[in-house]
Design goal:
With 247 residues, the protein is an alpha/beta fold. It has 7 helices and 9 strands, in the order βαβαβαβαβαββαβαβ. The strands form 2 sheets. Strands 3-2-1-4-5-6-9 form a 7-stranded parallel sheet, with helices on both faces. Strands 7-8 form a two-stranded parallel ribbon. The chain is globular, with a radius of gyration of 17 Å. The model has no long low-confidence stretch (mean pLDDT 98). It binds NADP nicotinamide-adenine-dinucleotide phosphate.
């Protein structure tokens, strides 16, 4: 056994970037994958490609800002495969901007997706995991959940928040044999910067990530490593960066 084969793994934000890479990689290792994201046609195409390659996957259109969508996502995983072993709360947005520009709708979006989306995912999965007395929740924070840089104040607030929530979960879920891993990536080449509306901030970040960013399958390999550990071992905090990244 490779520690992954046969596990039921739900990934939010599986339509692009790190979530897509993780879905493909974990499916190739024998996991039963459940893909959630808003762009239904993308997750359906990825699930179809996984199946063509001999893997197992289903797609469940999901907006993580809606509690009911997460209840349906996790519920479909359990109905289809009989249990849920791992939830990867990966969906996220990063419309960076200086606070003084008051992009308040974007602040709301980051709080709703990056922070409340994680809370809703956990709320939907916990009843099954506590009943099973097993499970693994992987939350995506960021190097920006440890450090600040120009334009990151609100994004960092959400990612510091994810990290705090992960540690709280870790402490509280001991009686249920549930593992909690907070992963903080550095610069990874994905679609994340495409949604930055402030062009000066977008360009600075594109220059930075373009220069040092590593491919999304870096995260996929790390997620597989974390999931594959024996049940008595709980990797709680993991930061990875491109070797060339200073921040
Ligand atoms: N790339 C980096 O350098 C980096 C560094 C540190 C941390 N991160 C974190 O890594 C995670 C993955 O990001 P990525 O870099 O792979 O970016 P990405 O390619 O833009 O992927 C983001 C994913 O989140 C999904 N998403 C956004 N809003 C959503 C919503 N309301 N409901 C459901 N899904 C939603 C998107 O799918 P739909 O649009 O189809 O819904 C997409 O699949 C994020 O949490 C991000 O903050 C990234």
């Amino acid at each position: 056994m490779n520690g992954i084969k046969g596990k039921v793994i739900v990934v939010t934000g599986a339509s692009s970037g790190m979530g897509e890479a993780a879905a493909r990689h974990l499916a190739a290792q024998g996991a039963n994958m459940v893909l959630g994201a808003r762009r239904a046609e993308r997750i359906e195409a990825i699930a179809a490609q996984i199946k063509e390659a001999g893997g197992t996957a289903i797609a469940v259109p999901t907006d993580v800002t809606r509690r009911d969508d997460l209840i349906r996502l996790i519920g479909t995983a359990v109905q289809t495969y009989g249990r849920i072993d791992v939830l990867i709360n990966n969906a996220g947005v990063m419309p960076l901007s200086p606070v003084e520009r008051l992009k308040i709708d974007e602040w709301d979006q980051m709080i709703d997706v990056n922070l409340k989306g994680v809370l809703y995912g956990v709320a939907a999965a916990l009843p099954y995991m506590t009943a099973q007395k097993s499970g693994h929740i992987i939350n995506l924070s960021s190097v920006a959940g440890h450090k600040l840089f120009p334009g990151s104040a609100v994004y960092s607030a959400t990612k510091f928040g994810v990290r705090a929530f992960s540690e709280g979960l870790r402490q509280e879920l001991k009686p249920y044999n549930i593992r909690i891993t907070n992963i903080s990536p550095g610069a990874v080449q994905t679609e994340l910067l495409e949604h930055i509306s402030e062009t000066d901030i977008q360009k600075a970040n594109q220059d930075f990530v373009g220069a040092v960013g590593v491919p999304a399958d870096s995260f996929a390999r790390i997620a597989a490593f974390v999931i594959a550990q024996p049940e008595e071992l709980d990797i709680n905090e993991l930061i990875f960066r491109p070797t060339a990244q200073e921040l």
